[in-house]
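REQUEST FORM: STRUCTURE PREDICTION
Request ID: SP-0412
Submitted by: Lab K.M.
Chain count: 1
Length (residues): 311
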Amino acid sequence: MRQIDRVDTGLLPQLMTCGDPDLPITRRTLKAVRDRSIQRIATKPVFGTTVPRSEVIATPDGPVCLDVFEPKDRSNCNPCLLWLHGGGYIMGQSEDMWNGPLFAEKTGCTVVSVDYRLAPEHPFPAGLNDAFAALNWIYNNADTLQIDPSRIAIGGASAGAGLAAGLALYNRDRDGPPVRFQLLLYPMIDNLHETASGRIPDHPVWCRSDSLAAWDMYLDGTPGLNASPYAAPSRAQDLSGLPPAFLSVGGVDLFVDESVDYAARMEKSGGTCGIQTYPGVFHAAEVAGFDTQVGRRMVDDYVAALQAAFV
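STATUS: Completed
RESULT:
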């Protein structure tokens, strides 16, 4: 069966706005792929009215730009979400006018979105270093940000969720700042895609060949099993001692089986990892399909998971 035939009928119209299957991702096509990504972002739905302010932090690797979305009802102890945007590690931007306002307005947290460096110009570990620097900056500037340093969550969508999962591992191993929670939306965590869903070639929006090409750029050609677990968290042998997590993924997503496996392994290692899968949902469908029944349910579920983590 074709994967498109498994898509929830309510989401089928949204597929028209979600990509060009005739533009595969390669190093040669990367500029066109990024241009297409910018066009998509320009038409992406905007949630609410929260507008970010910009911050620039100094790191050993150079300046990193952040977009800070603040809730309307600020106090001296708001929770905080470190947010990492999607884009296959090769595209995307921190000014995420969907997720930033969504979480700031729905959960009352401050959202700090990181403009991390992208591959192939800046392969792993550049983006991870930027994310870790941002996490430390948030913790060390909690008073200025008016946040509660004991309620810092990390999260992201797609590659951003993969980067958040890698950051959780990296932060654990370096005794970094305390992290309350991981919010991992359809995470890009497995550079091999050798699960049952990962071997299917024709997933809508983000297919196996495009994903493997993006992984190759991010890992700078590092062979599969040799990839660092901080880059590809599915390669991690030890998932103990991590912050509690919630994974959200569609049933018609390249990443569904590896997400289910990662959640099960976290639980087996003594951690807490809830996971919710959505039949008929393709990769990131809840954004374009935010006004559909399944899209609203998906958003409500992961917003509720973050709210519960901050209590």
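NOTES: The mean pLDDT is 95.
Reviewed by: T.R.
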